[in-house]
Amino acid sequence: MPAKHDDFWDSIAAAHRLEDGPEPDRPTLTPDPLESEPESDEEDRADGIFSPQFVQTTGVHEYMRTCREAKVVPVQQFISMLDHEVVSLKHRGVGPVGGRAIFECLRYNKHIQALDMEDNQLGLNVDVDAGHLDHVCAALRENQVITNLDLSYNNFAARGCVAIAEALEANGRIKELSLRGNNMGDMGAQSLSNTVSKSAKLTKLDVSDNGIGNALKENASLLFLDVSSNRIGEEGTKAVAEGLKENQTLRSLQLNGNPIGDTGVMIVIEAVGVYCSVRDLGLQDCSTNKTGAGIFDPLNPTGRYTLELAKPFDVELLKRLKQLDLMDEATGDDNFMNVRYNGKGIDGDIQEWPVAETGVLNFDYVSCKRVPKDARAQRDEVFYSFRKELANPALSEETKLLMLRSSATTHFWNCAQVRQLLQLITFRQRVDAVVMLFRRIVDLDSSFYAAIYTALKPGECAALRSRLGAPVLRLLPQEEEEPPADEGDTAVVFLTETDGGGDGGEGAAQAQAAAKEGDAV
Fold first, then answer.
1. Which of 120, 314, 354, 390 has the most CB within a 10 Å radius?
2. Which parts of 332-457 fold into alpha helices (H)?
3. Interval 162-183: pLDDT, tens
4. pLDDT, tens digit, for every residue of 220-234?
5. Exposed, middle or buried: residue 507 (CB in 10 Å: 0-12, 13-18, 19+)?
6. Is the separation of the CB atoms in 6 and 241 below 8 Å?
7. How many Å separate Cα 81 from the centre of its chain?
8. Three-state SS letters, 292-341
9. pLDDT band with cut points at 50, 70 and 90 for residue 219
10. What does the pLDDT look like over 331-366, one tens digit per residue?
């Protein structure tokens, strides 16, 4: 049901930082008080009776009254935190009846700015049409204090999310909202999209794991959007790309776990690289078959491609690469290298080769476009965060290469940083990683040979020379012009840089493990 200009805007993890400038000020929902129940300050109570100030500013009497009427036991933890700015009640199982008392209290509370109500079954088996969510909606309309609200995994379903979205239209303070895992579907998402498009305050929205297909219109203030695990396919990705063309505020877009496939990944990478301000793009577990090296990025097209000529998208991709090749002709270097059709080399220049209607075309494409003079290497804190993600032992090598490709869409590195990233890639994939990052290295001419090339095995060096050709040969001493070596040669162990934020012991262990793996091949 994609409208032409529908788009998806995101929230990633709270640990991610913005590339440009500090994160917006906001309360943080990091404390989880489940293991302890903090008590209110002693001056707020007198002989077990609430003080007048506590009563006047917290809504405690409304909470106690509603609990009595509903015949539910008050949550003492909630009472003790009514005068706090940050309250976490996740995984408490308060249910729709207990939730009614809590949200009735929030209509009067003047302290709570950040509330986490994740996994409390607030919408379980409720009849929305009968008004069973009116207490939640009334609190959202009337509360003028809360800025951060987490309502994830509460079984609101489509009608519940529609009601909540309508109530949010009257709230001008919510900056961060999570409705993750509420099975809102397209109907709930479409209603939410109308609210999002009108909100001038909302900067972070998480609607992941909701089974939506398209659904959020352009928003001028949203910085983070997470639409992971929402059954978004190739067509939905096209709608995302259309929305990205017009958005200049989004910083983080998470599409993880959506079956967008190879074509969808390339569509969104191109949209991010060309049109908008996204600096953190999540594309893990997106049903892709190509490795990161075979994903086309018009800003960084260097890579190894496998094109199925029976597919119109692949044929169009070949046309685009041939156009880039013509634009690079002045350099005198070959952009298309190692071209093979159905396993056999082709005769002559690929520009003159008649494209077949079927079959498989393999080749390496090497861009001659230089790094812009004003390009800067990734900031240390951003780099260390990305490296930590890449070091996750649960990630496959294909996922790691895809993460490198998507990150290379918007970031540059220096050789020392690339050397550290290569420590996290196994022997057989390191050449692919170097090829992808080659034209995104800011100090390529001065440091590539010493920092990167000498750290590769002889077989890897030979493969790199074959795949990159003249651009890499210019960076090497003449004595490096040697015949290809067997890939089973002894590995050169990486040395870990110690630059304050590094992980010397961990990096060394990873390097040794990579070396042993290479020796065993």
1. 120
2. 380-390, 397-408, 415-422, 430-437, 444-451
3. 899 888 888 878 999 999 999 9
4. 677 888 989 888 888
5. buried
6. no
7. 33
8. HHHCCCCCCCCEEEEEECCCHHHHHHHHHHHHHHHHCHHHCCCCEEEEEE
9. low
10. 888 999 999 999 999 988 999 999 999 999 999 999
From CA 85, how far away is CA 88, in angstroms rounded?
A: 10
**Amino acid identity for residue 337 in this structure:** M
Of 243, 198, 252, the residue nearest 225 (C-alpha): 252
- The neighbour count for residue 196, using CB atoms within 10 Å, is 24
CA atoms within 13 A on the CB side of 293: 23
Contacts of 242 (CB under 8 A, 6+ apart): 4, 5, 6, 7
Q: What is the pLDDT of residues 21-65, one digit of tens each?
A: 444 444 444 444 333 333 444 334 433 568 888 999 999 999 999
Locus of tokens 């262990």:
509
Phi, psi of 320 (to 5 degrees): -65, -40
Amino acid at 330: A
Q: What is the dihedral of CA 24, 30, 33, 35, to 10 degrees?
A: 180
Give the span between the Cα atoms of 271 and 266, in whole angstroms: 9
- Angular region, 71: left φ>0, alpha ψ -120 to 50, beta rest: left
| Structure tokens belonging to residue 412 | 């540059």
Residue type, 502: G
Whether the pLDDT of residue 73 is over 80: the answer is yes
For residue 493, give both structure tokens: 């162990």
Q: Distance (Å, rounded) from C-alpha 495 to C-alpha 335?
A: 33
Number of H helices, E strands in the chain: 18, 14
